[in-house]
Design goal:
By secondary structure, the chain is mainly alpha-helical. The protein has four helices and no strands. It is elongated and about 55 Å long.
Length: 116
Amino acid sequence: RTGKLPIAYAESTTLHMLGLLHVKFAPVWPAAVRVIVALSHAQEGPVWPCIEVALTKSMQRPLHNIATPKDSTGIIDISSKKAAENTIIYDHHVRCFSWEASRGKNHVIFTSSDKE
């Protein structure tokens, strides 16, 4: 006995824990992260590709999926705090994608924004 999970179990456990991070029940998230970290240290080979795929999918989500509060006419409610938070998140994502597209050469994107 090696004390390690078989590769199939390590992969499925990692994928399950990554899936739990999509559940809207925050008390579960720290435990899921601890399991992912422990597996990534013990079973680097089978675990890291699963993590890489999850991170890649997460970073490639369309920005238009970010929820923005709208009033009854369908117009974005800019006065709402949630809309302001989403604008900051959207701006952050745009900056990250711009930096990634420039292969790290565009450092101007890290200057402070007038919106904040």
